[in-house]
Amino acid sequence: MAEAIERIKCLIIGSGPAGYTAAIYAARADLKPVVYTGMEPGGQLTTTTEVDNFPGYPKGVEGPAMMTDLQKQAERFGTDVRFGMVTAVEFSKEVGGIHKVTVDDSIQLEAETVIISTGATAKYLGLPSEQRLRGGGVSACAVCDGFFYKDQTVALVGGGDTAAEEATYLANICEKVIMLVRSGEMRASKAMQHRVTSTKNIDLRYHTEIEEVLGEQVVEGVRLINNQTKETVVEEITGLFIAIGHTPNTEVFKGQIDMDADGYILTKGKTTHTNIPGVFASGDVQDTVYRQAVTAAGTGCMAALDAERYLQSIED
Ligand code: NDP
Predict the structure, then answer these.
(1) pTM of the complete model
(2) Which of 10, 104, 105, 145 is catalytic?
(3) Is position 1 within any domain?
């Protein structure tokens, strides 16, 4: 006889601040949540060092330690945390329908509600010297790490809205920001471009790319190349910020749920409802603007409340 397929009331995919906060709320509402962690349990915060901007930690907290705390808090109320990767989904379009989920290409599950909190992954340049110095002065989040470079000179790569926003943010903290744009123009909105060009301590360089990040343990400089003249120059910096975009982790949901052109899951109004009844999205997977641990946690809470109300509405 075939083994019975496990039925889960609230399945949470992803284990960053959004997923675990959803789990804390869902567990306390007796939805018996199951969290599948993905391949990077704890999410993006486990690759950062100090988190100084999450409320409630006056002395700051190490990213991995915070994620362990969040996991413990979710487990305290009975969340079942499992290591595994969701590899396929088949969402029902019916209200009250059952969603089919495959984990690790082998485990079949059925879920009454699904909370997608799979996050987004920051893009990097891919240079070996850049990868080696991640956590040693190379960062993909100015709001998270900018403060460590107070009154210092940093460089930032990118010409989109994120880069423009992060350059102006860093310019308030740092002595100087060398902004590197690979083409002859910025992709950022005109208003953001104006903010960049009118900020005195942003040294904007077009047609410029990084050839190598210099430094053994920590960033000490960058060798830059002008991709038109091929001229190179070394600049001393202590921090390097990469702001060339994010990729939402939504590959597995393609064709199953509404997304924007970049693959971010679309949610309705100020809720976490997606176009699929019983499927909710929280955290960076649906957020192109704020992308903070605390905002991810906030939407995780919202998703659990939305899931609880949805289940209630179909029981009534
Ligand atoms: P974008 O994709 O808009 O911009 C990416 C930037 O990085 C481009 O300048 C691109 O250059 C550059 N880039 C990409 N790869 C490399 C590379 N290998 N080397 C050097 N440069 C590279 O990403 P954003 O994160 O800026 O924005 C994503 C979306 O979010 C956009 O729609 C944006 O408008 C939105 N957003 C809105 C905000 C707001 O409204 N407040 C704030 C932040 C983002 P190139 O142009 O040459 O390809």
Answers:
(1) 0.81
(2) 145
(3) no
Q: Kindly state whether residue 60 falls inside one of the protein's structural domains.
A: yes
Q: Which two tokens stand for residue 207?
A: 């047609």
Same domain (yes/no): 236, 256 = no
**pLDDT tens sequence across 141-163:** 898 899 999 999 999 999 998 89
Most informative mutation of 161, 189, 212 for ligand 1 (most atoms within 8 A of CB): 161
Contacts of 280 (CB under 8 A, 6+ apart): 113, 114, 115, 116, 267, 272, 273, 274, 303, 306, 307, 310
205 CB contacts (<8 Å, ≥6 apart)?
Answer: 178, 179, 180, 181, 224
For residue 280, report the distance from its CA to the centre of ligand 1, in Å: 26
When the pLDDT of each residue in the chain is averaged and rounded to a whole number, the result is: 95
Q: How confident is the model at residue 49 (pLDDT cuts 50, 70, 90)?
A: low
Domains contained in the chain, number = 2
The single residue of 10, 144, 284, 306 carrying the catalytic annotation is 144
Which residues form the domain of 30? 6-121+246-315
User: Does residue 174 carry a catalytic annotation?
Assistant: no
Q: Is 10 a catalytic residue?
A: no
Q: What is the mean pLDDT of residues 248-277?
A: 97
Distance from the alpha carbon of residue 175 to the mean position of ligand 1, in angstroms: 24
Examine the domain organization and report whether 117 and 252 are in the same domain. Answer: yes
Q: Looking at the structure, tell me whether residues 63 and 205 fall in a common domain.
A: no
Domain check: are 107 and 159 in the same one? Answer: no
